[in-house]
């Protein structure tokens, strides 16, 4: 998905707690919110399993959305012509921190 469409969702969850982020992402009408919701679930599960952190104490300290490669295809058009289709992609990085500790967990997609 596009970087601009993803940043519109990411700006709403930056700096919020884990539980509040889940509620916001589940109720947002944007299509970009579902992959971000899966990424937040995964980052919290990694923090819980790898570092033994409690999910309730987590908050989102840093979120980055950077542009990725553009997938280019050709679509056939009238009179033997072709039209380029450009599908943008993005890289999302979420860093979760514990409120009481200074541990961090990074998860990338």
Q: What is the CA-based Rg, rounded?
A: 17 Å
pLDDT < 50 runs, ≥5 residues: none
Strand order of the largest sheet: 1-4-5
CATH topology: Ribosomal Protein L22, Chain A
Residue share in helices? 25-40%
CATH architecture: Alpha-Beta Complex
Count of individual beta strands: 5
Silhouette: elongated
State the main characteristics:
single chain; Ribosomal Protein L22, Chain A; two-stranded antiparallel ribbon; 3 helices; 5 strands; 33% strand; Ribosomal_uL22; RNA-binding; structural constituent of ribosome
Task: Provide a brief overview of the structure.
The chain is built from 3 helices and 5 strands. By secondary structure, it is an alpha+beta fold.
Give an overview in words.
- With 109 residues, the chain is an alpha+beta fold.
- The chain has a single domain (3-99), classed as Ribosomal Protein L22, Chain A (Alpha-Beta Complex), CATH 3.90.470.
- 37% of the residues lie in helices and 33% in strands.
- It contains 3 helices and 5 strands, in the order H-H-H-E-E-E-E-E.
- The chain has helices at residues 3-13, 18-27, 33-51, and strands spanning 58-67, 71-76, 82-87, 90-98, 104-108.
- The chain has a 3-stranded antiparallel β-sheet, with helices on one face. Strands 2-3 form a two-stranded antiparallel sheet.
- The protein is elongated.
- The model has no long low-confidence stretch (mean pLDDT 89).
